Amino acid sequence: MDDDSLMRHALGLAERGRGAVEPNPLVGAVIARDGRIIGEGWHAKFGGDHAEVVALRHAGEKCRGATLYVTLEPCSHFGKTPPCADAVIAAGITRVVVAMSDPFPEVAGRGLDRIRAAGIAVTLGVCESEARRLNRPYLTLLSAARPYVHLKWAMSLDGKIASRTGDSKWISGEESRRLVHQLRGRVDAIIVGAGTVRADDPLLTARPPGPRTPARIVLASRPELPADCQLLRTAGDSPVIVVSPTPATIPGAEVLVADGLPSLLAELGRRRMTQILVEGGAKVIGSFLDAGLVDECHVFIAPILVGGPAGASAGHGVATIADSLRLTECSARTVGSDVYLHGLI
User: Fold this and answer.
1) In whole angstroms, what is the distance from residue 322 CA to residue 261 CA?
2) Is residue 140 within 8 Å of 276, Cβ to Cβ?
3) Cis ω for the linkage preceding 42 (within 30 of 0)
4) CB distance 302 to 171 below 8 Å
5) Are residues 73 and 109 in contact, defined by beta-carbon separation less than 8 angstroms?
6) Cβ neighbours of residue 334 under 8 Å, at least 6 residues apart?
């Protein structure tokens, strides 16, 4: 196997930590000699051993004279674990191939400098674009100081997310809803508007639970929720945060005062939330689109026609089609009777 193949294998290993390692990055590592894998590992959970250490332990004494392939620059500082760069040097690795440097301020090239200073050959940039794609949420948190925003909705063929009476259960099929629960279990928070809470009384949990327990965030012009809503009844299971421009006290919920989406996302970034899922309704979806604060879209299109005015987005919208937000790396596949459209912005 060549450098690209071995690095892609490491990237696949890194993906296994999604939802369990945040706010840390996803990292995979492979140790090879003469193109053959002799050890591998990935960062499996926050606070646990880093990928390089797992791979070194897996390979044991075979590490001496071998090559390490790692998707992110080895760390050079003491955090929750000792520096990985020191472990690489001590193991007798003679070449290190890295997909990308780590922009985290306490690393930022220092890990590679330490490895080079020990006389180990370093190759940087193998499969870098794939590595950056893998860790878009981590990189967004570091560069923009806000969480990575997933936008999700289910709609009919004619673009409706509810009937004229507000009924929306269920537009998408069971298989699509199962995918949404998997996505919920990998994010730090789920965001809806107060209108959705009043109309649908959602639970907003991952069922079955995933590696993360997301906070339930409600955007409200007035800081209030129905006293008997499911969110407040289950507040002991996962946090409920009501975001409003004015302070108040809601038993069972935190009231977070924020003036607009940028200030809200900045606060969530300070709390080290790495990924959030925006689920609606139409006004909330439109507000995120209008603010340009969407990174990834998940759209489930059901083979039904609803009619009426309830479109998927109720924001201001763009003036011309040329101004539209465009999806890249867009994919479409059938999920049950629905079509699942997924892409990046």
Assistant:
1) 25
2) no
3) no
4) yes
5) yes
6) 340
Which residues lie across from 30 on neighbouring strands? 40, 69
The secondary element (H helix, E strand) that includes residue 301 is: strand 296-301
Largest distance between two CA atoms of the chain: 70
Token code pair at residue 335? 């999920």
CA 152, CA 59: separation in Å to the nearest integer? 42
The two structure tokens encoding residue 201: 């009384």
Structure tokens at 233: 């009844």
Residues 218-260: tens digit of each pLDDT: 999 989 999 999 999 999 999 999 999 999 999 999 999 998 9
Q: Determine the straight-line distance between the first and last CA of the chain, rounded to whole angstroms.
A: 34
Sign of CA dihedral 43, 44, 49, 51: negative
Interhelix angle for 110-117 vs 84-91, to 10°? Answer: 20
Distance CA(21)–CA(19), nearest Å, equals: 6
- Token look-up 């400098």 returns 113
Candidates 22, 40, 52, 296; catalytic one: 52
CB contact set of 95 (below 8 Å; sequence gap of 6+): 66, 67, 68, 120, 121, 122, 123
Backbone angles phi, psi at 11, to 5 degrees: -65, -40
Counting runs of H as helices and runs of E as strands, what totals does the chain give? Answer: 11, 14
Chain segment 127-149, per-residue pLDDT in tens: 999 999 999 999 999 999 999 99
52 is catalytic: yes
Asked if residue 103 lies in contact with residue 93, where contact means CB atoms within 8 angstroms, the answer is: no
CB 134 within 8 A of CB 14: yes
Sign of CA dihedral 309, 314, 319, 321: negative
Task: Read off the DSSP letter of residue 323.
Answer: G
Percentage of the chain with pLDDT > 90?
82
HEC string of 232-254 equals: HHCCCCCCEEEEECCCCCECCEE
Mean pLDDT of 180-206: 95
Give me the amino acid identity at 230.
Q
pTM for the full predicted model? 0.92
CB atoms within 10 A of CB 22: 24
